[in-house]
Amino acid sequence: MNDTYPEQITLPGQSSVADGPHDQSGMYVMHHAFRRDLAAFEAAVRATPIGDAATWRALGDRWTDFATVLHHHHGVEDEHLWPVLLAATTEDATGTALLHAMQAEHERIDPSLTAVAAGFATMVEHPCADHRNALDVHVTATRAALLAHLAHEETEALPLLQRTLSVEQNAAFEKAAQRAYPLRMIPFLLPWASDGLPDDVRRRIVESAGPAYGLLLRLLRGRYERAERRAFRYV
Q1: Residue partners of 113: CB distance under 8 A and separation at least 6
Q2: Which candidate, 230, 234, 235, places its Cα nearest to that of 62?
């Protein structure tokens, strides 16, 4: 590692660390939250009593939040990251193929998100073991597909980003990522992203974002945690 590079964070489940000139903390924090959620949903689908409609409804609402964040995350990559990298790798067949694979993986994940949402709705309207088993299959498949995509991105795409993007290009991508989420999502997004982070990483994120961020996080955490207990009460 070059001593002038920022120190990258390593989180549970992370496949690789892409050393380089750009701090990838935001990307790794989002990936950690996606992995955490998928494990929780898989466990909840298997543990929640079939007839507990209120909890299935809470899980369905929570899945909507998860899928919305993932949609915005993938959207900003598709619009503001992969095209910039593609333009810079016109003479690199391997890099071009990798970026097309990233886009294709996003497209394959979208139908899985829709299938899981439909499965949660079915468990509210027509609860039975067969419908729970079908939902379990969809959640498990979605988790496998997204985990494989995150690992692929961390081991290959993020190192390509580090090698390719200028400081100005990376700053533009980071700014686009911050603008991708509407204000109405912030009360969920802030505590969601920090949930389960190691204490040292959480402190680092708060310190880099400033005191207003830390205050807002403390104000929003209680409501978020109450909703989490409702949805994942059997996990």
Answers
A1: 67, 70, 71, 142
A2: 230
28/12 Cα distance (integer angstroms): 10
CA dihedral 54, 60, 61, 67 (to 10 degrees): 170
Show the domains of the chain with their CATH numbers.
25-185 (1.20.120.520)
pTM above 0.70, yes or no: yes
Distance CA 61, CA 19 (A): 37
Q: Tens digits of per-residue pLDDT, 79-138?
A: 999 999 999 999 999 999 999 999 999 999 999 999 999 999 999 999 999 999 999 999
Nearest Cα to Cα of residue 35 among 122, 151, 125, 167:
151
6 Rama sector, left if φ>0, alpha if ψ -120 to 50, beta otherwise: beta
